[in-house]
Fold this protein.
Amino acid sequence: MAKTAVAETEETKNDTTGSNGHAPSDNGSVTEAGKTPSLHKVVTDYDANTIGVLEGLEAVRMRPSMYIGDTGIRGLHHLFIEISDNSIDEVLAGHCDKILVTLGKDKVVSVTDNGRGIPVDVNAQTGKTGVELVLTELHAGGKFGGGGYKVSGGLHGVGASCVNALSEWLECEVRRDGKLYRQRFERGVPVTKLEAVGKSTKTERGTTVRWLADDTIFGPLEYDPERFLRRIRELSYLNKEVAITFHDQLHDQEPVTFHHERGIAEYVAHLNETKDELHSKVIYFFRERDEAQVEIALQYNKGYQENLFSFANNINTHEGGTHLSGFKTALTRVINNYARKSGFLKEKDPNFSGDDVREGMTAVISVRLPNPQFEGQTKTKLGNSEIEGLVNSIVGEGLAEFLEENPQVGKAILDKAFLSAKARDAARRAAELVKRQSALESNSLPGKLADCTERDPSKCEIYLVEGDSAGGSAKQGRDRRYQAILPLFGKIICVEKARVDKALDNAAVQALITALGAGIALNTSGEEDDKEATSKFDLSRLRYHKIIIMTDADVDGDHIRTLLLNFFYRYMKPLVDEGHIYLAQPPLYSIRVGKDEKRYARNEAERDKILKEIKRKDVHIGRFKGLGEMNPEELSETTMNAEKRVLVQVMVEEAAEADQMFAVLLGEKVEPRRAFIEKYAREVKEIDAF
Ligand code: 0RA
C-alpha cells in the first residue's frame, strides 16, 4: 500500500534492525572495498588527512544503519532525502527555486538544483575542493558556515558523504563561473579529480548529484516512486519558493511538478480535502523575528480527530516540542478569551480544554531557525526555548484578530468546542465505568474470550476473529498454551464517525479494551499536556504482545479489518507504533494434488504459481468462502501455526497519510472514497493488506 507500509515478518526471526541480511559485515564487502585498486592509488596520492576520510567512509559502510537508519527500502530512499535536503538548504538560503529529481531506467537517481553550486575552489586548510569535502567528509556541510537555516541535526542529518559511501558510484556536477565541473566517486572514494569538462552560461548555476546505490549494501534496488513523491510533496508545501519536478523514467511516467505558492495553507487545504470543512478559508499566519520564521496554517473540519503536524527546518518533528506547545497554549487561551468576551461562556462555566478546542482541527506549524536543537528518543522534538514564546505570541495576536474579523467562523468553532466538551464529559464517565468494571471483577475478561494458559505477555498472542463459526475453528485450531481467541460479534463501531462517548459504549470496543488490558490512549482529563493521554494507555499491562486480526478474505472481512485498524490507530496508537498489530493471511484457495498432497494459496497469483510448478492433471482447486469453512486443522496449518503461517506486521510511517486514508475509507464524504478506490483500483491487493 502506498499510504502505509506493511512489512512482512517472518515468524521465528525477530529482526528489529530492518537489516536485510545484505549488510557488508555479513558478506565481506567492506574488506572488498578496502582492496579496490583505486583506493590504493588514491591513498598514495593524498596526505594523512585522506586516511581519516577513508576511515570515516569505511565506518559508514561497516555500519550503514547507524547513519541512515536501516539498509532496507527505507534506507535506500533515505539516500534521496539526504541529497535533496542539500538542495533545499540552497532554497532556504534564498538561492534556489528549481529542483529536478529523476529516477532513471538504470536505477540511477539524480537531483539537480539551480543553487549557487558547491564551491569548486581549494580549501586552504585541507587542500581539497569544496566538492570533495562535501562528498567525502562526514558533516562537512556545516564547515562552510554559509549561515542561513541549515537542515541539520535532524533524524539522520548525515549529509552527502554517507550517500557517497553507500553508492556503487556517484557523480557530482557543478555549474559555476561559466564552467561545468565534474568529479566521480566509487564507494565514496574519488576516482577522478574535480575537472572542468565543459561550459555553462553565466546565469546557469547549480549542482547535480547522481548516484547508483550499492546493491551489496541495500540488496536489489527496489525503488518506490511513492516514497519520492511523499517527500517531494511535503518539501514543496513547506518551501513555497521552490518548484520540484519528479521524473520517474523507471516506471515510464511523465514528469510532474510540485509548486505550492500558498505553502502550508495549501497543505492544510489538501489534508482537509477528504473531510467536511467547518469554514471555507484556511487560517494562516507568518512572521519573522530574530532570524526565526514561523508559519502556521489551520482549518477546522466537522470530524473529531485532531491533526497537528509540526516541522522545524523541514524536519517533521513527530515528537513535537517548543513550537507545538507554544501553539497549543495560545490556541486554548485565545479561544477561551474569545468565548468569554462574546458571552458564549458565562462566568460560572469552566474553560474549554485543549482537546476541546482542537477537535476536528487540521494544522501545520512550520518554523525555520538558525540552530535547531533536536531532542527526544528519535531526535524529532524541537528544544529551542525561544521558539515557544514566539509561536505563542504570533498565534495569540493573529488568531484573536481573525476571530474578531470572522465572527461566523468564531461561532462555529465555539459550538464545536462546546459539543466536544459535553462528549468528553460523557466519555470520562464511560471510561471510568470500563475501568471500574475491570477493577471490581479483576478476572472480568470478556465472556467470549478463550484465553491462553501462558501468563508472560511477551509469549502470548490474541486472535481477533470475525463471528462465531470462525471463532469455533480458531479455538480448536489454536495452541491453547499461548494463543487466545476473541470472537468479535457485530461490527465494531466506526470510530472515525463517532465521538468518544459513543465509541466507548460499543460492546466490541469494550471487549477489546478489557481483553487487551492496557486501557485506552484518550485524554479525558482536559489537561494540556499530551502525556496525560498516553499515560492512560499502559503498554506494560498489555496482556498479549501479538494482536492478530484474522478476518475473511472478502469485502466484509476487509471492512472489519479496516474498522479494527482504525480503532487501534485512534485509541491505542502505541500498539501500532510499537508494532504489536499483525494481520493473519488466511488462504483463499486450497489445491489438492493427487491423493495426499495439499497446498494453499493466499491469492490468484500464488495459486497460478503453484499450478505452474506442479503441472499435473489430477489437481482439485477449492475456494474458501470464509474462515468458518476451514476445518481446524486447515486453519492451524495455514494461518495459526507459528512454524508455517505468514503474518503481516502493521506499521504506519506517515501519520498524515494514514489519517487521510482512514478519512477517505471510513469518513462521510463519498466522492473522495470513489476517487481513492478508482485511483488504487489496480493496487487493490495492497489496499487489502491494510
Ligand atoms: C557549501 C557552500 C555553498 C553552497 C553549497 C555548499 C552547496 C551544496 C549543495 C549540495 C547540493 N546542492 C548544493 N548547492 C550548494 C555556498 C557557495 C557560495 O557561497 O557560492
